[in-house]
Each structure stands twice: as structure tokens, then as C-alpha cells.
Amino acid sequence: MLEKDFEKLVQKAVMDLPKHIREKMDNVAIVIENKPSSDYLRKSGMRFGDTLLGLYQGIPKTTWGRDFSGKLPDKITIFNEPIEKIALTPKEITELVKITVWHEIAHHFGFDEKQVRKLEKKWKKTGKV
């Protein structure tokens, strides 16, 4: 997939989020990289052979306070190579990008991995969170 097409998928995934969520996202940059570095894998606790589709780095909104003024933006990285390797069709790539973006944004709002997985199950089942 061309880089610009993948970027459009990520942008669409963000725009498809409910308006009230998009409006509360602030001080966060969403970037695309080809694949996670060994440093990213190590820092995220991944083991050899694990696949990392996205990564949230920052201070979740639930822990922001007066001491955090002037801090650098949070960063969400979406990795296109692992997504394209897992998904077999353009439709599957689109869906996996949407899920990955949503997952990482949930971390931005303070949800830990266990909570995000629980919300994902609900979302996949009902289409709502």
C-alpha cells in the first residue's frame, strides 16, 4: 500500500471516532512508521515474535495536572508494515487500522491494556463503547 493511502486510512480512523472523543483529544500527535524499532518493542514489553501494531507514548489525560503544563505532546505511532502483513485484503487493512487507532487513543484517555481489551470486545460486539 502506498504511504499516502495508509495515511488516509489513519486520518479516516480518527475522523470516524465519535465527535465527543475527537473534541477531547489534545496535545497528541499521531504518526506513522514502517515498523517498530527494537527499542519500541523492548519498552513496550513485547517478546520476540510478538507483533506491535501501534504504540502510545505519553501521559494519559487521567493523570494530567498542574505539573504537566508545557509538556511535549503525547505520541501515538501506527506501524504500517505489521498491519499490512496481518491483514490480507484492503478491507481488513482498513478495519485493523481503525481498531489500532482506537486502541491507542484509549490509552491516551487513561485506559490500561486490560481495560482497552474489555472495551474492544464490547465495541466489536455492539459497535458502541
Task: Report what the structure shows.
This protein has 129 residues and is of the alpha+beta class. It has one domain: Zincin-like (2-Layer Sandwich), CATH 3.30.2010. It is 50% helix and 12% strand. The longest helix is centred in the last third of the chain and has 19 residues, at 90-108. The model has no long low-confidence stretch (mean pLDDT 87).
SSE topology sketch:
Blueprint: H1 3-15, H2 19-24, E1 28-33, H3 38-43, E2 54-57, E3 74-79, H4 80-86, H5 90-108, H6 113-126
Parallel strand pairs: 1-3
Antiparallel strand pairs: 2-3
Helix pairs in contact: 1-5, 5-6
What is the architecture at the second tier of CATH? Answer: 2-Layer Sandwich
When the domains are counted, the total is: 1
Shape label: globular
The level-1 CATH class: Alpha Beta
